[in-house]
Design goal:
By secondary structure, the protein is α+β, with helices and mostly antiparallel strands. The chain has helices at 2-6, 8-21, 47-58, 67-89, 96-121, 126-140, 156-167, 172-179, 201-209, 242-268; strands at 36-40, 43-46, 144-153, 190-195, 220-222, 225-236.
Amino acid sequence: MTKLVGSLIPVFLAGLLVACAKTGAPAAADPLGPTQVATVNGKRVPESVFRLQTLAQTRKNADDLTPDERKSVLNDLIGLYLLADEGRDQGLLTERTTAAQLELARIQLEARAMATRFVEKNPATDAEMKAVYDQNLPRLGGQQQFKARNIVVKSKEEADLVIKQLQQGKKFADLAKERANGPTGPNGGDLGWFSAETMVQPVVEAARAMKVGSYSTEPIKSEFGYHVLLLDDARTTDAPSFDELRGEIKTAVERDKLQKHIRDLIGAAKVVEGDGSGKN
């Protein structure tokens, strides 16, 4: 039943659009198309609606359905039509909450369709995408990364002792296994590669000041305790190429174009807030 109720709004909208098409001006071609898959109490079930229901319900094309799947989708769609008819008969469309929900669903559907059409007619050009890439290039590349081992202890005195033992020739990995309080202790203090975004700042700042192969000669204080760091390696990452980011940039450019178009529409519209009298 949840599946049926969740699909009611599109069916109601389809019914409203058909009803509108039948009033007022001379009858035009049915926008839902001339073909149908069934009739329900004399009312046609358009093939176009059936195909949309199939995609929503099965994620498959209607032409790819097995006979049993086709029967299942059709039965569900017929159930929707019958529930919708029952709702109309009981005055559901005259209830304010339902009417407001339908109105919101209608304008959202139309706006999404128009947004899709706008983007199709105004796609991101290579020049626009390249300009966005070049503008953001400074923050995309040149990120410093460090590969280090870490021993974190609770007190400065204990960290000083670790440094003294290193000066006496003790191996860093062995000391990490013996003394480290953090989760990296069992694997010799290995932190792997990290950057400023993924590591506490005092450790990052210390790594920047160190030479590869050296260890910190002063304890490094952070919120986790006192660190002793061994810098195994350092590198600066390259920025992703334009082609690697093309899809992401294309989406961003087209989104910005659409948002500008909406702002222009709002700017050109006569909008009076409140009840229309000019008083809020």
